[in-house]
Specification:
The protein is mainly α. About 70% of the residues lie in helices and about 0% in strands. Helix 9 runs parallel beside helix 12. It is globular and about 80 Å long. Keywords: Repeat.
Length: about 475
């Protein structure tokens, strides 16, 4: 994707020029403009790729449809015309949901202050407020910078004052979720404003609503992200600790899972959130003590045909296996066989192969007895098959190499069986193909007892070579 940006008007003018100067039909004119700008390295993700309506008789430029809708909504808000708001809000929400380019154009043309005013105007009308929050959520998707301090307080107030209304809670939480994704300052502001107990409270109070539970769990998970490239250090770890220690987050999530034993989507989201909260040894153990491991293992067994669920469960098992005692609990619960089955069953899926190898790698770390179980269950062979299936996927290659190393580092008797499977060539190929694999691949080869050639790198100093 290109890094250069252009204005919507620049794109629209290029399309119009193709129509008037080169006599192209509208669709061809748009395609030609897209090709022209993309060949120049321009990022068009925020550009509406459509023909703008023709100019009026007096020569005045016409606007794209979403801006016309926004103008109508703005007039209704300015005139406090409550009867017209539902239709205008619904129209704007529908257009915002179509694509990022539409809501980006609306955002650049003042949609947020209009919607903020609409929310204020609708405060005493439950149905109208719900419509306004849903539209605000659609606008904020992918545009967290639009939200300001007043908007944060409005959302927090809506969640505080209507805790028993599942639909209003869902709409407000969706706004918070969109506002916090890739935006560290919004996350910190919302946490300071008290969002965490509101989210866990929503899961408890609306534990029978799949949408509320899934969305609130997702919002909690986003509070633990460190995905804003504009901020060198976030508060992800602190937020995870607050969710667990101050808001009983682990118990809330695991108890919520009991109501959705047949809903893989909700269970997958709960697993993903639990994995983000496994930041301390004692948290990992608490997940097991509360029954979280049992539901993960059961979910993996029951949802083997659903790759998205399998990936999330493997990631969660990998996270809780950071605790050495939990490693044993996972093995005792039959987790190794299910992980190997997941890798083999989804061998064409690089993400599942990566997470599966990583989970086995954690189970093998510092645990020779677990290494034997993994070997007997076909774990080493599955990892090597994953390497063979995904030679260009550095993450798969790296995790598989780390698993092989962990299997043999304290169990040298496993080296020959693994070498007999063709490990040496596969690891050497990974080392040659991926610079990021060099250290782990070299360590794996060394612990397997193979001769390792040192890769010499010039450091810039005379007489100095780096390995």
């Amino acid at each position: 994707m290109g890094s250069k940006q252009i204005a919507q008007e620049t794109f629209d003018d290029a399309v119009q020029e193709n129509i008037t100067e080169f006599e192209m039909d509208p669709e061809e004119a748009v395609r030609e403009a897209v090709q022209q700008f993309e060949s120049q390295g321009v990022d068009l993700s925020n550009i509406v790729k459509a023909v703008r309506p023709p100019a009026s008789e007096n020569g005045q430029r016409q606007k794209h449809q979403i801006l016309l809708t926004l103008d109508s909504l703005g007039r209704a808000v300015a005139g406090s015309e409550l009867a017209e708001l539902p239709e205008q809000l619904a129209a704007l929400a529908a257009q915002c949901k179509e694509q990022l380019a539409f809501r980006s154009l609306a955002g650049r043309n003042g949609a947020y202050p209009v919607l903020f005013s609409a929310c204020q105007l609708a405060w005493g009308d439950r149905d109208l407020l719900l419509r306004a929050l849903c539209t605000l959520s659609a606008l904020l998707d992918g545009q967290p910078d639009l939200l300001d301090g007043a908007g944060q307080e409005l959302l927090l107030r809506s969640l505080r004052e209507q805790p028993g209304d599942a639909e209003l809670m869902l709409a407000g939480i969706r706004c918070v979720r969109h506002a916090c994704l890739k935006h560290e300052q919004n996350r910190q502001d919302f946490v300071k404003g008290g969002i965490l107990p509101l989210l866990t409270g929503a899961i408890v109070q609306h534990g029978n609503s799949a949408d509320v539970v899934r969305t609130a769990a997702s919002a909690l998970r986003i509070m633990t992200f460190d995905d804003d490239i504009r901020v060198p250090f976030g508060h992800a770890h602190d937020h995870a600790k607050m969710i667990v220690l101050e808001n009983d987050g682990l118990r809330v999530l695991i108890e919520a899972a009991k109501a959705f034993t047949d809903n893989s989507g909700v269970l997958s989201e709960l697993c993903a959130t639990l994995s983000r909260l496994s930041v301390r040894n004692e948290f990992c153990q608490e997940i097991v003590d509360l029954g979280g491991l049992n539901f993960m293992v059961t979910l993996l067994a029951d949802c083997m045909e659903h790759p998205d669920v399998v990936k999330q469960v493997l990631s969660a098992i990998r996270a809780v296996a950071g605790n050495d005692d939990v490693k044993d609990a996972i093995v005792d619960a039959g987790g190794t066989d299910l992980i190997v089955l997941a890798i083999s069953h989804h061998l064409g899926n690089p993400q599942i192969c990566e997470q599966g190898c990583a989970a086995l790698c954690m189970l093998a770390l510092r645990k020779p007895e677990n290494c034997s179980v993994i070997m007997e269950g076909g774990g080493a062979l599955a990892a090597l098959q994953a390497m063979k299936a995904h030679p260009r996927e550095v993450a798969v290659q790296k995790q598989a190499c780390m698993l092989i190393r962990n299997l043999v580092s304290r169990s040298r008797d496993l080296s020959q069986p693994i070498l007999a499977m063709g490990a040496e060539n596969l690891i050497a190929e990974a080392r040659a193909a991926h610079r990021d694999c060099d250290d782990v691949a070299r360590a794996a080869l060394r612990d397997l007892g193979c001769k390792v050639e040192l890769r010499e790198l010039w450091t810039g100093q005379k007489g100095s070579l780096a390995q």
